[in-house]
Amino acid sequence: MSIRTAAAAWEALFRAQVSMMLRFEESKDFQPLRSREYDVLFNLAKLGGRARQWELNANLLISQPSLSRMVGRLQSAGYVRREESPSDGREVLVVLTEAGAAVQADIGRRHVRHIAEIIDSVLTEADQAELARLAGAIQEAAASGSYLEAEE
């Protein structure tokens, strides 16, 4: 295996993601939210509609202080609420409200259709399944650190 090949593969994957995100932003896929605000609602929905703030933060690419400010904005808009954890009063739970779930679902449907428009135009169903498998393997290795064991 080659360092150049790995770097080229990563850059291609990263550039594809950046290009798609730019297209989504241009098309205003996430309106009335910003993409990062939608990401908070999306991940909260994936976590069952409620999560400790640190659990939510583990799935996002933003700092803890940025998440706190964003949760505050989403709370002001009525999309989430903060609750004290029943098991530990020091922890804060972020809870998706009915309005938050509705806006997340609406944006999500629109966004998924746009993803499919782009990806279906260049990849077969089998290609898409293989891409998902490969990206999942990369994510799992990075998250678990299993690639470090292979180096030893």
Topology at a glance:
Blueprint: H1 3-26, H2 35-46, E1 50-52, H3 53-58, H4 64-76, E2 80-84, E3 92-96, H5 98-120, H6 125-144, H7 146-151
Antiparallel strand pairs: 1-3, 2-3
Helix pairs in contact: 2-5
Descriptive labels:
152 residues; mainly alpha; 3-stranded antiparallel beta sheet; 7 helices; 68% helix; globular
Q: Short summary of the structure?
A:
This protein has 152 residues and is mainly alpha-helical. It contains seven helices and three strands; from the N terminus they run ααβααββααα. It has helices at residues 3-26, 35-46, 53-58, 64-76, 98-120, 125-144, 146-151; strands spanning 50-52, 80-84, 92-96.
- Helix/strand structural class: mainly alpha
**Which band does the percent of strand residues land in?**
5-15%
Number of E-type strands = 3
Give the overall shape, derived from the CA principal axes. globular
Largest sheet: 3 strands, antiparallel
Stretches where pLDDT is under 50 for at least 5 consecutive residues are: none
Radius of gyration: 18 Å
**Mean of residue pLDDT?**
92
Oligomer: single chain
Number of helices, where a helix is a run of at least 4 consecutive DSSP H or I residues? 7
Lateral arrangement of strands in the main beta sheet = 1-3-2
Helix content bin: 55-70%
Structural features, described:
The protein has helices spanning 3-26, 35-46, 53-58, 64-76, 98-120, 125-144, 146-151; strands at 50-52, 80-84, 92-96. It has 152 residues and is mainly α. Strands 1-3-2 form a three-stranded antiparallel β-sheet. β2 and β3 form a beta hairpin. The mean pLDDT is 92.
